[in-house]
Design brief:
Oligomer: heterodimer
Order of helices and strands of chain A: HEEHEHEEHEEEH
Radius of gyration of chain B: 25 Å
Strand order of the largest sheet of chain B: 2-1-3-4-6-5
Structural class of chain A: alpha+beta
Largest sheet of chain B: 6 strands, parallel
Helix content of chain A: 25-40%
Largest interface: A-B, 35 and 32 residues
Radius of gyration of chain A: 21 Å
Strand content of chain B: 5-15%
Shape of chain B: globular
Shape of chain A: elongated
Number of helices of chain A: 5
């Protein structure tokens, strides 16, 4: 979608006005700084999905909306997790983190800040394991998706406005 | 040049003739610029009516209507008119003032989040905080409003943007990469559609408002003549096919005719053109056109398959698509035209039989004026040529059933949103756009009382609108439903204080009167039409008349109720 004020509101408003709860949402600019890509996780009845996608495509600021529920795509999420660690279990926590491919991004006498990426189910397990070591605090990024389909963006061409650009 | 003057420069370049508006604090700089502008401004008496009047202008001419309101309450008052335009796909541009950009979010005086509030009620909206953004935003607004599926667009402009000094930077092209408009229609589907039209034994054309918006009325007529199909036009499309055309059946749906609804039920090929399978048309969806293959042509991809999955979906401009279908039909006519001649003749026989069994006919009485009698008289005066702006309710349905329209853009009403209070301000805009035309505003006594303030605008603009109040002393449509579905427990539907029309109109300086006797109705209407200026005619009609045929909510359209229950004779 276009990287413009209000564009995000139009997309989320379309979902909330139909009573859908957004489970996660990420948005950031693309290679082209005028455009943003948004990944939304939302539970919509299968027979309504096509209609919601069509309604999103109708939004002037949306270049293309697609349903990534099925079809080849990579889906990943990032977790930042702070865990309190006593002197006795610091090594165990780091070992466990390694199993999940997580890495320590901060370390202090109180404990660690860990960073992990993966599919959401794997991250759920990681969080469960870390909880068993003590008090934790978690921030999840929400899912980001990249489709493996080779789809070209179909963009509308500029429309000439000769009639208004001429002096009156 | 300041920002306000830049806005007017944009409007001039968009060939805007008139703005319907109401000034206020933050639009002061804009109104100061209007003081010197050749663009006319009509001062309405409530912002909601500015939006309705702009719609009346747009619906009558096909051009973009423009309305204007100040920030806060001015903008929130526009909302009903915007949503109404959204539902009926009417191109209007609304200009609203916003508090200075530095004050946004500070709960400043007359501040409201207009951009947020109107997000879902417009096709698109803009918040403009600098003069530099103004030309692009306004030209884009006009482009978006008028192209594709038309709709309302709002441009919210901060006071400091109005006041800033700068210049008008010409906009030579508009680039909205995400705004795709599909106009052409898929060639293969067009061939399939033409093929299906020849093969059908019981075809039925179901034309909607898109026919009017696309200016496809000539193409529609050619199509129904080419395939000799019966055709219904929805509430939004009356006049899209001339009412005196032999293939025209009537309006379908909740208060449609018996023949239209039976035809929709029995058809084997439903040809939906610029229509959207609204619930008021389809009734219970599972029982709607159960035997039909469906061709659906619409410019909005989201409409195709939204309610009914078509067999032949065609996304495109209905005018262009029908032209292509006609080419295809012409090419194949020699082999195909007489293919199902016998079946087609039988189908027409069936349609005629339904028409004669339960025709849409006015009801008369010698001791009280029947609402249908009123509509028949207006129809007689119009002769299919007058502009009729209707409010919402029973009178709207009787008018739609009984007043004939031989051209598009004569029947102006709030279809999708069903906004009471629409008729009078819409007539104001319509008469302004077409000073040469006879314009009726047909209102109920409820809706009329919602728009009484505009009598002042009509009077001071000298607009010769003929205001006909079908006065039954009730909110008739709600009363009808309470009678039929809530054991006649009439609750809060009686409107038992109506202003004396002679005094009311007289207070605004034009004539008005009440008519109660059927024998006086014709003469009273003729007198109203003869009056060179506006006229208010209050027509006292039977209070307890119901609109029939009626498809009860959730019912199938072929199970319509044709009239009131008949008393059982006891031997």
């Amino acid at each position: 979608m276009e990287n413009k004020p209000g564009a995000l509101m139009r997309v989320t408003g379309l979902l909330s006005s139909r009573g859908y709860n957004i489970e996660s949402l990420t948005v950031a600019r693309t290679l082209d700084p005028e455009l943003s890509r948004m990944s939304i996780v939302v539970d919509i009845e299968p027979n309504q999905r096509a209609q919601v996608i069509k309604q999103m495509n109708k939004l002037i600021n949306v270049l293309q909306a697609t349903d990534s529920t099925e079809g080849p795509a990579v889906r990943r999420e990032l977790v930042l997790l702070r865990v309190r660690a006593s002197m006795q279990n610091r090594t165990a926590i780091l070992k466990e983190a390694e199993i999940f491919g997580a890495r320590a991004v901060d370390s202090s006498v109180e404990g660690f800040a860990l960073e992990a990426t993966g599919d959401p189910e794997k991250l759920d397990e990681f969080i469960d394991v870390m909880r068993s070591y003590g008090e934790i605090e978690v921030t999840r990024s929400g899912l980001v998706v990249v489709s493996l389909d080779n789809k070209k963006l179909k963009l509308a061409p500029p429309v000439s406005k000769e009639e208004v650009s001429q002096a009156v | 040049m300041n920002g306000a003057q830049v806005v007017l420069e944009c409007l001039t370049r968009e060939k805007v003739e008139v703005i319907f508006g109401y000034p206020g604090g933050v639009t002061l700089p804009f109104y100061d610029a209007i003081y010197d502008s050749p663009i006319k401004h009509v001062l309405v008496r409530h912002e909601q009516n500015a939006a309705f009047a702009a719609q009346g202008y747009a619906r009558t001419t096909g051009k973009v209507g423009v309305c204007c309101a100040t920030s806060g309450p001015g903008a929130t008052n526009l909302v009903t008119g915007l949503v109404d335009a959204m539902m009926d796909s009417i191109p209007i541009v609304a200009i609203t003032g916003q508090v200075s950009s530095k004050l946004i979010g500070s709960d400043a005086f007359q501040e409201a989040d207009t951009f947020g509030i109107t997000r879902s009620g417009t096709k698109h909206n803009f918040l403009v905080k600098t003069l530099a953004e103004l030309p692009r935003a306004i030209h884009e607004a006009f482009h978006i409003a008028a192209s594709g599926r038309p709709g309302p667009v709002l441009v919210d402009i901060t006071k400091d943007a109005f006041q800033a000094n700068g210049h008008y930077a010409p906009v030579s092209s508009i680039h909205l990469p995400g705004y795709r408009v599909y106009t052409e229609g898929h060639a293969g589907q067009i061939r399939r559609a033409a093929q299906a039209m020849w093969e059908a034994k019981r075809p039925m054309v179901y034309a909607g408002g898109g026919i009017i918006h696309a200016g496809a009325h000539d193409e529609l007529r050619q199509l129904v003549e080419m395939i000799d199909s019966p055709a219904v036009t929805t509430l939004m499309a009356l006049g899209g096919l001339p009412a005196n055309h032999p293939n025209f059946i009537s309006m379908p749906g909740m208060h449609g005719s018996y023949a239209a609804n039976m035809g929709m039920t029995e058809t084997d090929l439903l040809i939906a053109l610029g229509s959207r399978f609204d619930d008021r048309v389809t009734g219970r969806l599972a029982a709607f056109a159960p035997h039909a293959k469906v061709i659906h042509v619409d410019i909005d991809p989201a409409e195709v398959g939204k309610i009914r999955t078509p067999d032949v979906p065609i996304v495109g401009d209905v005018k262009k698509v029908i032209q292509k279908i006609l080419e295809e039909l012409e090419a194949t006519a020699p082999q195909m035209k007489s293919k199902n001649a016998t079946a087609r003749a039988a189908w027409w026989g069936q349609i005629k039989e339904w028409q004669s069994q339960h025709p849409l006919e006015p009801v008369f009485s010698t001791d009280e004026i029947k609402p249908q009698h009123l509509m028949a008289e207006i129809d007689r005066l119009s002769g299919g040529e007058a502009i009729v702006c209707s409010d919402v309710g029973q009178h709207q349905m009787w008018a739609a059933q009984l007043i004939k329209f031989n051209h598009p853009r004569l029947w102006i009403n709030s279809g999708g949103l069903g906004s009471m209070g629409f008729g009078l301000p819409a007539a104001l805009g319509a008469q302004y756009a077409r000073p040469d035309k006879l314009v009726f505003a047909i209102c109920g006594d409820g809706g009329f009382q919602m728009s009484i303030p505009e009598l002042a605008t009509i009077a001071n603009q000298g607009l010769p609108v003929k205001i006909i109040v079908m006065n039954n002393g009730y909110l008739g449509m709600v009363r009808q439903w309470q009678e039929l579905f809530y054991n006649n427990r009439l609750c809060q539907v009686q409107l038992d204080t109506f202003p004396d029309p002679e005094k009311l109109a007289g207070a605004y300086g034009f004539p008005g009167r009440t008519v109660t006797r059927p024998s006086q109705l014709r003469q009273a209407l003729e007198e109203a039409v003869k009056e060179p200026g506006p006229y208010l005619l209050n027509v006292q009609v039977t209070p307890f008349e119901n609109v029939y045929p009626m498809v009860p909510a959730g019912g199938a359209v072929n199970e319509m109720v044709l009239g009131p229950p008949q008393p059982v004779e006891v031997a």
